[in-house]
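[Protein data]
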Amino acid sequence: MLLVSKEFTFDAAHNLVKYHGKCEKLHGHTYKLVVTVAGEKDEEGMVIDFLELKRIVQEKVLNRLDHSYINEIIPQPSAENIAEWIWKQLETELHSERYFLYEIKVYETPTSYVTLKKNM
């Protein structure tokens, strides 16, 4: 099995309404998203074309989250909840007879991130 990953960034604002501290106030981040697909190569020697992966993530995730107020999409937009929301948007789209969504990472800062991985 091969793992194919692509990185993305998006800018968005949020506040954590059920949190008591700095993050309960409106603020923004430049998020980094890493999407990993696992699978077997096709006759062209690829698990998934990077362009197709980019198109799907752009359409299903980035078009909605980039330059948004995430609270209007995800009620308590912690990094964990954002990761789960993204997974739900991509799981069906990134699934075929040869490959499946394996892992996503959502970086809220360059050193703080959440990893969500498929249960095997």
Observations:
- The radius of gyration is 15 Å.
- The chain has one domain: 2-117.
- The domain at 2-117 is CATH 3.30.479.10 (Tetrahydropterin Synthase; Chain A).
- The chain has a mean pLDDT of 95.
